[in-house]
Inverse folding.
């Protein structure tokens, strides 16, 4: 059982990780490369950071079927998020990825036979309404595929959280191997890029060192002493801060219907976790 001080430290680390994640949309937008090229390049930098951390703490990367599956989820999340950012707005991408907790409910029901309650089903229905707002808006904007990829990144991100609680899982090892797969799959595209401007290279280093490398390290440490519900609430800063940074520095905005969808998705996910947190003590008693 973690002490109160350890829990506060864990919450702070999860919050800092969410802040670092939120710079991803802006940095991806300013790099004039394809999404796969950016994902490969940033993970080269991230591997240096994560590899250095593993050496410092003397943690040898593990490999088993659950770590392998987790690494595919990490790779899928990174790749889909980056490519989606190039095909739709940063706001659409991050908010649709924020549907991950709803996918956790659905996947838990399918694979772990955890029957969802009324609150779970209600949250899924409301989030689905918000997601539909994005897709109706995308019919006019022409970024339907980007929204689909962003939604799939939410599905793969849910896998990251589900697999970390299994007995043989090792989250940091999944991140390490997932980053390697990301580098290899995108390397052919990266080698074809020609615009290696100072802005592009600086943004790439920031993405790899902070938005992927340091953020994942902080998150894996923070989750050791932070309840999943609390971590999800804290991560709510990301879908708010991410589009704000892009709007201020890149002047990208979203349509009115997508804005409504964003409010519905973020509000329902945060509201679901608050209600879940309040109902748990009553259920336990």
């Amino acid at each position: 059982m973690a002490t109160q001080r350890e829990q506060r430290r864990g919450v702070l680390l999860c919050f800092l990780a969410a802040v670092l994640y939120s710079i991803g949309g802006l940095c991806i937008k300013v790099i004039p490369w394809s999404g796969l090229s950016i994902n490969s390049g940033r993970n080269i930098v991230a591997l240096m950071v994560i590899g250095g951390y593993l050496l410092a703490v003397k943690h040898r990367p593990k490999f088993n079927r659950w770590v392998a599956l987790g690494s595919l989820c990490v790779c899928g999340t990174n790749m889909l998020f980056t490519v989606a950012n190039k095909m739709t707005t940063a706001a659409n991408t991050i908010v649709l990825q924020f549907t991950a907790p709803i996918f956790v409910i659905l996947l838990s029901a399918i694979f772990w036979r955890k029957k969802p309650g009324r609150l779970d089903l209600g949250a899924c229905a409301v989030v689905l309404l918000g997601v539909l707002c994005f897709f109706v808006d995308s019919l006019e904007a022409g970024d339907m595929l980007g929204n689909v990829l962003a939604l799939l990144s939410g599905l793969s991100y849910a896998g990251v959280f589900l697999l970390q609680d299994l007995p043989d899982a090792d989250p940091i090892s999944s991140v390490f191997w997932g980053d390697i797969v990301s580098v290899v799959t995108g390397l052919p595209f990266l080698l074809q890029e020609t615009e290696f401007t100072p802005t592009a290279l600086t943004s790439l280093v920031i993405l790899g060192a902070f938005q992927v490398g340091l953020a994942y390290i902080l998150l894996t440490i923070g989750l050791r002493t932070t309840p999943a519900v609390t971590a999800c609430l804290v991560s709510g800063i990301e879908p708010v801060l991410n589009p704000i940074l892009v709007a201020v520095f890149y002047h990208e905005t979203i349509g009115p219907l997508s804005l409504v969808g964003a409010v519905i998705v973020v509000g329902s996910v945060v509201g679901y976790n608050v209600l879940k947190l309040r109902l748990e003590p009553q259920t336990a008693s």
